[in-house]
């Protein structure tokens, strides 16, 4: 019944997906993120869900959705409305379908997931199942920058939940995410002293030289076998080639597998920042660990077993994968809630400038998987 209903709604699904993808919603584009939110508010209210808007001044508003405002659902579903793309990207390369694949900015990360959640609930209602009343949905606006504004809301909603389902895209061949690395972001700001590079270079104190020493030490912290990666991904400094640079900045991305590693990495980065190589320079370290790791537990294993049982019923093969990428799944997993991620539609190449796609052929099946998992978890 659910699968048949979803197959019959495929045209509607694609139409809504096109509208969402063609609405720019980069994290810092509040107007665009809120426009996506308004579309979703209308669609979810049409099926009788209650939507509470959590306003933000600088970033997009967050949405909290459930069947009744005073209900106490036990399943949490999380998806984000923001993308990594700049304003104008949707006009530059709008939604496009080639064969069974839908392309466009944010189609897979993760506008297809909003459509999936909506139609999973619609399918449950159409089938006469009350399981749709057992979900508490958060659509947040800042996941791509670490969810600084929505993290407290996610933690609040997570209280007393029995399960958490995060609908980042599922991987090819039915990969759902059961483990994720933790994430940290740090910034080094070095101050030196400027001077003319030809007339009196000895009076200068090169901030670039100082930060270069530190960057080499930071890169030595990588230990891929242990799951630790430290990447200095952005460096800026100086004003001109004939001036000793008085300022330099480096942005650092950190990934790790467990809390013990996190504490050790923070200690080492702090030590590196404090050591002076060029006399007369000073360094400030900013940042911290922004997301804890998502680690698999026995309770998570039980949740995965349920999902695999449902998948077998509808002829989907599910496999477990781990990811170095961060997501909001970490915030519920660290609270001890059985959490799975990658329960969204199947697709690939998120954040890509042209290759990102969602698989439309399998879309109804993975929406049915979500709907039937909700139903089974609701007893």
UniProtKB/TrEMBL annotation:
The keyword Ribosomal protein does not apply. CDD domains: M20_CPDG2 (cd03885). The keyword tRNA-binding does not apply. Residues 178-279 form the Peptidase M20 dimerisation domain. The active site is at 82, 143 (proton acceptor). Its cofactor is Zn(2+). Keywords: Carboxypeptidase, Hydrolase, Metal-binding, Protease, Zinc. One of its GO terms (molecular function) is metal ion binding. It comes from the Bacteria. InterPro entries: ArgE/DapE_CS, Bact_exopeptidase_dim_dom, Pept_M20_glutamate_carboxypep, Peptidase_M20, Peptidase_M20_dimer, Peptidase_M20A. This is Carboxypeptidase.
